[in-house]
Structure prediction request, 270 residues.
Amino acid sequence: MKKVFSLLIFVILFVSCNDTDKTESKQTNDKNITNDVVEFNDITLLNDKVSTLNSELNLLKTELEDIKKRQEKDDSHTELYYKNVILRNIDKDTVELIRQVNHGFHLSEQNDILRSFTNNKSSFDNSFLANEKWRDAGFIDSFFSEDVINMIVYLFYKNNTYESSRLNLYVNSLIETYETIDQKDKIVLEELYKLSEIGYFEKEKEINQLLHNLNDLNKDIYESEFDDYVSGMTGVFNVYSFWARRYNEKNDEIVYEVLKKIQNKMRTKN
Prediction:
């Protein structure tokens, strides 16, 4: 009987120990799971913070780039910008060429853009500008880099010639005219170019008829601002014949882009 009782006690103790081990094991497992969840939540929270910081950093970078661009626009007319940025990025031959053209036109209130064109036509016809490469769209595109355009804008600003010589009005009208020309007008421009090559006064009647078909804009814009009182040619002819030559030379698109850049930069500064 004692043996049976002892055996029973042993079994109870053994089972009790196993239950205790199981309980402790379960508690350990539960604790490990809890630790894993906490660690996972910490990683998720950290990733969220990193993502937020990256977004804020990108926003700051964008704002910094905008500030730099605005600063460049604000500085592009200053002598410091001209010396430190433009002249460093343009080769000496190009700088001298731009200065030569600027001096050749000698724009002023008295010598406005159309008077200058008329008075200097023969000298420019015999200058480097007569080279065919200046009619090539690819060459024009490569020559008029951002720095070259900035240098031209700087000279306009420095010499106060863009508005006083009415160049601003001429550029505005050239751009406005180009933006109104459609595909059917190009055929008319081709004919205008052929007649212009013969001579304005020799073909004045035919030319004026063509211009009547083309001129959809306010005629006062041309007649009041751009009548060429030196040669006697009308303002309408001066503007449309410009684009007739550009279409013939197949460089109208890049010339328009250059004029548009100059216009935008000058408007920014005024």
The chain has two domains: 1-75, 76-269. Residues 76-269 form one domain. The chain has a mean pLDDT of 75. The chain has twelve helices and no strands.
